[in-house]
Amino acid sequence: MTSSKSGTRAKATKEPAKAPAKAPGAAKEPAEAAGGAKAGRTAKVAKSTGSAKAAKAAKVSEAVKVPKGESHLALVRRARRINRELAEVYPYAHPELDFRNPFELLVATVLSAQTTDLRVNQTTPALFAAYPTPEDMAAAVPEEMEELIRPTGFFRAKTKSLLGLSAALRDDFGGEVPDRLEDLVKLPGVGRKTANVVLGNAYGVPGITVDTHFGRLVRRWKWTDEEDPVKVEAVVADIFPKSEWTMLSHRVIFHGRRICHSRKPACGACPIAPLCPSYGEGETDPEKARKLLKYEMGGYPGQRLSPPPDFPGKPAPALGAA
User: Fold this and answer.
1) Do the beta carbons of residue 290 and residue 296 sit within 8 Å?
2) Using alpha carbons only, what angle is made at residue 158 by residues 152 and 163, rounded to the nearest 5 degrees?
3) Which residue among 5, 22, 89, 139 has the highest number of C-beta atoms inside a 10 angstrom radius?
4) Does residue 28 carry a catalytic annotation?
5) Which of 18, 211, 238, 264 is an active site residue?
6) Ramachandran angles phi, psi of 10, nearest 5°
7) Is the pTM of this model over 0.85?
């Protein structure tokens, strides 16, 4: 599900990459406004003064403001270039829920609503020890399950969903998690987002996961102004080939959690700043922006207690650990 490349994990703290030179007569991408003579002038200013203010000015002048009349073709090129850049920054991108099989991933994803993946990962070890199979979970005493998943919030509603989907898996699917979207969305508490998470990461079926981070970033990047997750999914699916859907979802969500935060994005430490029409909404000073980085980008533990072998950060602590 993930890939590993050495020497790429610190890219988020570097200056945004300049757009490559184009051959004469080649179609130009919007990001080219950040390259060429303009980029050269700003780089010289920063070098000659050596001041933080000059570096900040260079960042601002290099940022691309996508024109209102951007064509669909130009948008597709810019979006795909963002995906390529994110692939270099996060070669280890992965689902941030701990799981060992499709059932555990399905349950963990349902629990992740309105809470963090970290809190889910800290909660599920005890849950899966008590109820390792759909048959076990379907027979659980509701009050006992509620206590186990209480840390994730909305524990009564989530308990109802887990009992319902476990019974459905037992009765309708032979105790196995189905590998078709139309079957998954029939399960209690399972929508398209949860179904795509399971399909993409447990079964290798491409899917776009439109969670809060994904929807926020694609609107910030002006890929779409749609708010409805289903419409966002359709727009993005039209921009990227199906083979990219699952990993694109991981990369965008990773970026939203680590750099492009909701309230205070770390613009000055963003590797795709030259491609972002919303550059400047957050902190543009490189040093100040680096202090805003989260998880492994900021030198802190990730969200998984059991991360993949190629994850560059520290494992998250267990529930109750210091």
Assistant:
1) no
2) 135
3) 89
4) no
5) 211
6) -95, 10
7) no
Q: How many residues does the chain have?
A: 322
Residue reference for tokens 């010289």: 44
Cβ–Cβ contacts within 10 Å for residue 36, how many? 13
d(CA 41, CA 44) in angstroms, rounded, equals 5
pLDDT in tens, 257-293: 999 999 999 999 999 999 999 999 999 999 999 999 9
CA distances in angstroms from 26 to 21, 70, 192, listed in the order given:
10, 17, 40
* Inter-residue contact 97 to 110 (CB < 8 Å): no
Confidence check: pLDDT of 15 > 60: no
Q: Is 183 a catalytic residue?
A: no
Between CA 234 and CA 99 the distance in angstroms is 28
> Which among 44, 193, 228, 264 is annotated as catalytic?
193
Interaxial angle between packed helices 155-172 and 142-149, expressed in degrees from 0 to 180 and rounded to the nearest 10: 120
Q: Is the pLDDT of residue 296 over 60?
A: yes
* Residue 184 Cα distances to 105, 162, 192, 199, angstroms: 13, 13, 8, 9
CA distance 125 to 213: 26
CA dist 223 and 79 (Å) reads: 7
